[in-house]
Design goal:
Layout (H helix, E strand, L loop, with lengths): L21 E6 L5 E4 L8 E5 L15 E10 L4 E5 L1 H4 L1 H8 L6 E10 L2 E6 L12 E4 L20 E10 L4 E5 L7 H8 L5 E10 L2 E7 L2 E6 L8 E10 L4 E6 L2
Parallel strand pairs: 3-5, 8-10, 13-15
Antiparallel strand pairs: 1-2, 1-4, 2-3, 4-5, 6-7, 6-9, 7-8, 9-10, 11-12, 11-14, 12-13, 14-15
């Protein structure tokens, strides 16, 4: 069911009832504030999401008439947040809005950047600015450590990702590739315990110690230890925090 169109509303109206409605108003001089029409004129409103394009700074001007969807309410402050994306990009907005966290989408890698990966989804309206509607941030690419994004994915590669959220600011479906793979840390933690001795390989030296790989995709930290990448060392587990995916080690010699 799409957003409803509103004319005048009897006052007072609980702000939560305004969610997903489309309202109209006038941009005030110190935009992004908006003076809403009718019975909502006394309700503070501001533009939270601008159209998904490169010229956001010029998207609105003082005294401009707009229509926008109510996308957030702050009952404590008594104000509402508006999105121009619904009215400027209705097809894309409708597609993204129907997504739910946990949905699985498929597509093809459209662009690889140092900050993340854009994915052209198999079922998608075009994005007005970006190469793809799907976006995967660096941490959500893989459970294992990697040096370059291209170590994990390449342009043109087909991928599957789990929906994390609808990014209303950028007009993206935030995806996770690693969420569809077993977490090697949790697999390791099922059979590991504090006091257990292991053999591992030093992977990284930092000012406060060294990281040691004790299983595929699983690394732990030895505080105040020295070593070189590639060194084989004996370690003992001194701390294991599953929720934080944190493994603390000590020399096992």
């Amino acid at each position: 069911m799409g957003p409803s169109r509103m004319g005048g509303l009897p006052a007072p109206v609980p702000l939560r009832e305004l969610l997903a409605t489309v309202v109209s108003g006038t941009v005030v001089e110190d935009g992004p504030r908006v003076r809403l029409d009718g019975d909502l004129a006394s309700t503070p409103a501001y533009i939270r999401d601008f159209p998904w394009s490169d010229n956001r700074a010029d998207a609105v001007r003082a005294e401009q008439r707009i229509t926008a969807e109510v996308v957030s309410v702050d009952e404590a402050e008594g104000r509402i947040g508006l999105s121009l994306a619904e009215t400027e990009h209705p097809e894309l907005w409708a597609f993204l809005k129907k997504l739910r966290a946990g949905d699985v989408l498929t597509g093809r890698v459209a662009d690889v950047q140092s900050f993340g990966v854009f994915v052209t989804l198999d079922e998608w309206p075009p994005h007005p600015t970006y190469p793809g509607v799907g976006f995967v941030s660096i941490p959500e690419l893989s459970w294992t450590r990697f040096e370059q994004v291209t170590d994990v994915v390449q342009v043109g590669q087909r991928v599957r990702g789990k929906v994390l959220a609808f990014d209303t600011y950028n007009g993206e479906a935030r995806l996770s590739l690693r969420a569809l793979e077993p977490d090697p840390f949790q697999v390791f933690a099922e059979r590991a315990e504090v006091g257990q001795r292991l053999s591992g390989t030093v992977t990284k030296v930092v000012p406060f110690g060294v990281f040691v790989r004790v299983a595929d995709g699983v690394e732990g930290l030895i505080h105040e230890a020295a070593g070189r990448p590639g060194d084989i060392v004996q370690v003992v587990i001194v701390g294991l925090e599953r929720e934080r995916r944190r493994l603390l080690l000590a020399p096992g010699d």
